[in-house]
Design goal:
The chain has about 550 residues and is mostly helical. It has helices at about 1-15, 15-35, 40-50, 55-80, 90-100, 105-140, 145-160, 165-180, 205-220, 240-265, 270-285, 295-320, 325-335, 345-350, 350-370, 375-380, 385-405, 410-425, 430-455, 470-500, 505-530, 535-540. Helix 3 crosses helix 17 and helix 12 (about 295-320) runs parallel beside helix 13.
Length: about 550
C-alpha cells in the first residue's frame, strides 16, 4: 500500500500542467531524434541530455522519461522502414519488420511495434514500481565489501559478453577506468597533466555526448553513402482483427522475456529479443511467414526490447548500477544534479523518484496517442540528406557539451573523446564498458577505500573485502565468469579426440558436423551485432 500511495503522489506531481508539457516535449524530442538513421536510444538520450540540465530536477527527469521512451520508439521506426537498427537490440525487429514494410504492410508493422511497446512498457514500469523498493530493502543491508563486489561483477559481466573478443572489452573498460581516475578524488591530483581545469575530473555528460553522438557521427560520415536513403512510404498505422489476434500473445510473452533480462547485469535486450523471436517462430501457426514478414516476429521482440528497457531502471535506481548504455547515460543525468542513485535514493529523493516512475507511465501513454498519428511525419524525417543530418548532430553535440560548464576547454575534451569514440568503432572496441568505467570507477574506488578502512587496511581480514557472505557469493560468480571460457576451450580441445573414436556411423557424423557450423554462424552473427555500439552496425551498413 505504501508503494501505491507513493506512486499516486508521483502521478500528482507528474500530471501538473507544466510537467505534463515537459513530458510531451520529451516524447516528441526523443522520437524526432531517435527516428533518424543510426541513432539508437543511448545516443538519443546522450545528445539531448544537456537539454534537461537547465530545468529543476523533477521537471528534468519527467522530460527525460519522455526522451527515453521516445528514443526507443524512434529506433523501431528506423529499423522497420530503413532496415537500419540504431542498436543491436533492434536487429530482430528489423528482420521481420522491414520485410513487412517491403510487402506493403509498413503500417501494420509500425502499429504492432508501437502498441507492443506500450503494453510492455506499461507492464515493465509497473514491475519496476513493485520490485525497486524490495531491491532497496535488500541493498540497505549491504556494506561496502558487498557493494564493491557487486560493482566488480557488473563491470566484468558487461565487459565479458560484449564485442568480438574479451580482450577488446577489457581494453575499453581500462580506458573508462583511467578516464574516471582523472581529478582529485583521492585527495591529490591524478592524471591532470598540470591542467587545473582537470582537477575536478571530467564531466560524464561531455564524455557521453562525445563517445555516443560525436563518435557515431564521425563514423557514419566516414562511411557515408553518396546515394540517398530510400524510406518505404507508410500510411496511417492500423491493425486488422487478424493482426490483433496474432500480436497480443507475443506482446505478453516478449514482456515476460524482457524485464528479467533487463534487470540483470549484462542481461541487456539482445538475448530476450532473440529468445522472443525463436519462441514466436516455434509457437506460430504461420511459421512459413518467418523470414518473409511475420507480424509475430515484430510484436514479440519489440515488446521484449521495451520491457528490458524498463527492467534496466530497477538496478539503476535501487543499486546505482546501469546494465546498458542507455541506463548509463541516465545515471550520468542523476550525477549531473548531484543525486546519487542507490539504496538511499528512495529515502532522500522519494518524491523525485516516484514522479519519475509515474512519468514513465505517462510518457508511454503519450507515445502511443501522439506518435501513432504522426508516423507518416516521422517517416519523412528519414528523407533528410545525410550530410545535413550529421552536421546538425555535430552542432547540437557541441552546443550541449559547452552548455554543461560554459567552458571552452570542454570543447577540446569533446573533440578528443569524439576521436576516441571513432577509433573505438574503427577497431571494434565496445563503448559501453568505457562509459561504465567512467561512471562506476570513482564509486568503485570509494567503496574499496571504505572497506579497507573498516578492516584496518587488511583486505583479507574479518571486515575486509571477503567479510560479508554476499561478497563471497559474488566473488564466486566473478570467478566462474572469468574461468568459464578457459574451461570451455579445454572442453573443445578434448572433444575432437573423443569425436575421432570410430563409434559413430557416417550419417550421424555428417549430421553432428552440420549443426555446430550453423550454431557457430548464429553465435558469430550475434556477437557482431551485440557489440555495445549504438548504431555501430548501422555505420557498417552505410559503407
Amino acid at each position: 500500500m505504501d508503494v501505491w500511495s507513493s506512486l499516486m503522489d508521483g502521478f500528482a506531481t507528474a500530471l501538473t500542467p507544466m510537467n505534463l508539457l515537459y513530458a510531451v516535449i520529451g516524447v516528441l524530442l526523443g522520437t524526432a531524434v531517435g527516428v533518424l538513421p543510426g541513432l539508437g536510444p543511448a545516443m538519443t538520450v546522450a545528445l539531448l541530455l544537456p537539454v534537461t540540465q537547465v530545468l529543476e530536477p523533477t521537471s528534468a527527469f519527467i522530460m527525460f522519461a519522455g526522451i527515453y521512451y521516445g528514443g526507443m520508439y524512434g529506433g523501431s521506426t528506423t529499423s522497420i522502414l530503413l532496415n537500419t537498427p540504431g542498436e543491436s537490440s533492434s536487429v530482430i525487429t528489423a528482420i521481420e519488420g522491414n520485410k513487412m514494410a517491403k510487402a506493403g504492410r509498413a503500417a501494420q508493422a509500425l502499429a504492432t511495434a508501437a502498441i507492443g511497446s506500450f503494453v510492455a512498457g506499461t507492464i515493465g514500469t509497473a514491475l519496476l514500481a513493485m520490485f525497486a523498493p524490495i531491491v532497496v530493502q535488500f541493498a540497505v543491508s549491504l556494506g561496502s565489501p558487498s557493494y564493491f563486489a557487486i560493482m566488480v561483477l557488473a563491470l566484468l559481466a558487461v565487459t565479458a559478453v560484449l564485442g568480438s573478443s574479451r580482450l577488446r572489452g577489457f581494453a575499453a573498460l581500462g580506458l573508462g577506468l583511467a578516464i574516471g581516475l582523472v581529478g582529485a578524488g583521492s585527495g591529490q591530483a591524478r592524471l591532470t597533466f598540470g591542467i587545473p581545469l582537470l582537477t575536478d575530473g571530467i564531466d560524464i555528460v561531455v564524455v557521453a555526448v562525445a563517445i555516443f553522438a560525436l563518435g557515431e557521427a564521425l563514423w557514419v560520415a566516414a562511411h557515408l553513402r553518396r546515394t540517398p536513403l530510400h524510406a518505404i512510404p507508410v500510411g496511417q498505422p492500423w491493425m486488422g482483427k487478424s493482426d490483433w489476434k496474432r500480436s497480443w500473445k507475443p506482446w505478453l510473452r516478449g514482456t515476460a522475456f524482457g524485464f528479467p533480462f533487463g534487470a540483470l547485469p549484462a542481461g541487456g535486450a539482445e538475448i530476450p529479443t532473440f529468445l522472443s523471436y525463436v519462441t514466436e517462430k516455434r509457437l506460430s501457426k504461420h511459421p512459413e511467414e518467418f523470414g518473409h514478414g511475420a507480424i509475430e516476429g515484430v510484436a514479440g521482440p519489440e515488446a521484449a526490447n521495451n520491457a528490458s528497457a524498463a527492467g534496466t531502471l530497477t538496478p539503476m535506481l535501487a543499486l546505482g548500477l546501469p546494465t546498458n548504455a542507455t541506463a548509463a547515460v541516465m545515471l550520468a543525468a542523476f550525477t549531473g544534479y548531484g543525486i546519487q542513485p542507490g539504496p538511499q535514493l528512495f529515502a532522500s529523493q522519494g518524491p523525485l523518484v516516484w514522479a519519475l516512475i509515474a512519468s514513465l507511465f505517462i510518457g508511454n501513454f503519450l507515445l502511443l496517442i501522439i506518435n501513432l498519428p504522426l508516423a507518416p511525419l516521422w517517416a519523412k524525417l528519414l528523407q533528410l540528406p545525410r550530410p545535413y543530418l550529421y552536421a546538425g548532430i555535430l552542432f547540437f553535440a557541441t552546443l550541449g557539451a559547452y552548455s554543461v560548464n560554459l567552458q571552452a576547454f570542454d570543447l577540446v575534451l569533446l573533440l578528443v573523446f569524439g576521436a576516441l569514440g571513432f577509433m573505438m568503432r574503427r577497431f571494434g572496441l565496445p563503448v559501453l564498458p568505457l562509459i561504465l568505467g567512467v561512471i562506476l570507477g570513482p564509486r568503485l574506488e570509494d567503496q574499496l577505500r571504505k572497506a579497507l578502512k573498516l578492516s584496518g587496511g587488511d583486505p583479507l581480514g574479518p571486515n575486509g573485502l571477503f567479510g560479508e557472505p554476499i561478497a563471497v557469493v559474488v566473488y564466486i560468480i566473478v570467478a566462474i565468469i572469468l574461468v568459464w571460457p578457459l574451461l570451455f576451450k579445454l572442453y573443445r580441445r578434448a572433444r575432437p579426440a573423443a569425436d575421432s573414436m570410430p563409434a559413430t556411423s557416417m550419417p550421424a557424423t555428417r549430421s553432428g558436423a552440420s549443426e555446430p557450423r550453423e550454431a557457430g554462424g548464429a553465435v558469430s552473427h550475434g556477437s557482431h551485432r551485440a557489440d555495445g555500439n549504438p548504431g555501430g552496425d548501422g555505420g557498417d551498413g552505410d559503407g
